[in-house]
Structures
1.
Amino acid sequence: MSDETQIKRRPGRPKRRSLGDDALVDREKIIDLAYAQARTQSIDQVSFVQLAKEFNVKPGALHYHIGTKDDLASAILNRFYAGLLRRLEDAPDDPDWRRRLSHFAHTLMNSQRDHRGAAEHILTHAKFRVFQKVQPGETDNGAAYLNHAFALIRDAGFDAQTGALLYHILALLSLSSATSASSRLEPSAHEDFLLRKADTFAPGSMPGLEFGLRAFSRVRTDDAFQQSLDAILDHFAPLRCLQT
């Protein structure tokens, strides 16, 4: 058959690369993209199918490099904890224990606020909340983060039992504040709606709402976080070990 009579291949999307083609995709590139996608959506929504479309490969090529969906979720969280740990380790030296713990809490909250997928996963899942499923020779950055946090609290002068409770409270405060801000749950994000709602009730018919709703509509997450943090540190200050 001559060249002129051969049927030409219809133009279309480029032919997909074969399984495990490292020239186009590798483990780090997959995690880079998955981590970026999870900044604005749930980790559960980050799929191998969608990632494969971005790389123009078959989903099996990504499974070849990553493994299961659990492996992908853990890789995203390990990347998150690596960034969090860098931010914590970059903190300036400060002799004041209270300022050190305040900086820790703010850094944790802001890191979770900046990465919606990590914050939502930590809030709603039991697996990989801290400890990660890592490759041989790879650092478990969640464990390294927790090691840093506990060492920080120990050096602030707390015994293990008190320090564990303090860490848990700070972690809950940071996580709830981060998800409140990123999900627009803070009242000030809906101030206009709340004020319009307040005007729909006859004077005296809802005395509780009349008392508090307008002020509530101006509450901001950052203000609530700071006042809560101050109250927590005030409460724990007398519990520090005197010898430290």
Note: The two ends are 89 Å apart (CA to CA).
2.
Amino acid sequence: MNNHLVSYSRAGDVFHYRWAARRCLRLLYPNTTLRSIVIEGSHELQKAGEYVIDVSEYSQTVDEDKSIQYYQLKHTTVLGKKPMKLADMKKTLVGFADRFRQHERKKRKDPVSISFSIVTNRKLDDSVKDQLMYLASGEVVDSRFRNTFEKYTKLKGKQLAEFCKLLSVEDS
């Protein structure tokens, strides 16, 4: 008996496993700066936003510069043709913004470069993509979009622009 609901769910799992496995292969490169990968979370378990992080990558250069890349993977077999809107990323944006604020507070003691990525097989709505770029560059954006984004992230002004610079969406 073939249960289609289970196969839809498993498709997302398979996407996550394969994507993470490909990222882990980078640990084998002889000159990699990648030091470790955490799947389903991060090394900073007590920090906010832990539950939206699917993969974390920790790198360190020979000059001791450290960086952390946080990923949220979103896969769908049902909504693939429907462009992703801002509301579809709400939970992820809330968690990422909470983690961003904690890193900002700790920045002076332990300088670590961070970034946030949402990886999805859905296309991001073009207007959302444009508005995120405008926010990152400090340009004027649609007031409804800005208000909603500020509500989700609890960030404003320069902090909001800085967060948007660190955020990427790898779509389709």
Note: The radius of gyration is 17 Å.
3.
Amino acid sequence: MPLPKVATPEFEIKLHSQDEPIKYRPFLMKEEKLLLMALESKKEDTMINAVKTILSGCTLPGQKVDFDSLPLFDLEFWFLHLRAKSVGEVVKLLFKCDECEEQTEVDINIDDVELFISEEHTSLIEITDDIKVEMKYPNIKQFSKFTNKTKLTESLFEMTRECIKTIYHNDEVFEAKVQTKKELDEFILSLRQEQFGKIINFFETMPKLNHTVLFDCNKCNKENIVIIQGIENFFLSS
């Protein structure tokens, strides 16, 4: 006689980059074990890859999700809500006091965490009056590749090249995916500092997990304000 199967509830979430809601289930003990192992590593890229694996396993059949192309902020937002449905809405974190450096435990309600989108953010960047560049968000593969690089300038140029989607010149349209690496590099290197700065602003203002925490220190009672961003900060104590 086969063992009984435990029924699991179903949920759905609407991501910023997706047109249709995605249906998923809570994670089970096999996913919980993977998450704990990733947390023990304290490595951001290990945690992000574990998040991708867990989300993939919890996505219900028939959902059209390309995890390799999902922006990192959507993966993080989805995983936080998956964690809330699986374990509970409250995460306990430790924060240091600015004054005395005493650590205080604070309860964070995941339902209060939002995806912050700057009003000045745009993916269509005007380089000149007749040249515009349409950008796309870096995905998890690009994030892992570039965060492992030690040369910041090199990483910045490579990220820019890989995140250019389309270049418009008057009525001409140039899809980046059919251009060579050399052609894209030459285009980027031809930009003035001010023009390249507009592209960097795209990365600096793109959506991100953002939550402001107010707490009073247990030792000196000083009121502290902490802004936490990125999924690792919602699981690792500061």
Note: The radius of gyration is 21 Å.
